Amino acid sequence: MKVRVDRKLCLGLGNCVAYAPTVFKLDDEGKAVVLDPASVDEATLLEAAESCPENAVILEDDAGNQTYP
Question: 44-51 long-range contacts, Cβ below 8 Å, gap at least 24?
Fold first, then answer.
């Protein structure tokens, strides 16, 4: 699974970091960046993505098809 963050949408609330701190961190601009998506299971990635009120966390399958949001 691939994970990316739409920085234009990200408000830097940190919900994704709270759900998956090994996958996300806030950078110097207060925006989420992806670290290591393989460090958690897919259910945790989905929870982290769903926790974002702006839908800035985007999940894709291995073929590049968007699965969330």
Answer: 44/19, 44/20, 45/1, 45/3, 45/20, 47/19, 47/20, 48/15, 48/16, 48/19, 48/20, 48/23, 48/24, 49/3, 49/16, 51/15, 51/16, 51/18, 51/19
Fold (CATH) for 2-62: Alpha-Beta Plaits (3.30.70)
Q: Where are the domains of the chain?
A: 2-62
Amino acid 17 reads V
For residue 39, the model assigns a pLDDT of 98
| pTM to 2 decimal places | 0.94
pLDDT in tens, 10-59: 999 999 999 999 999 999 999 999 999 999 999 999 999 999 999 999 99
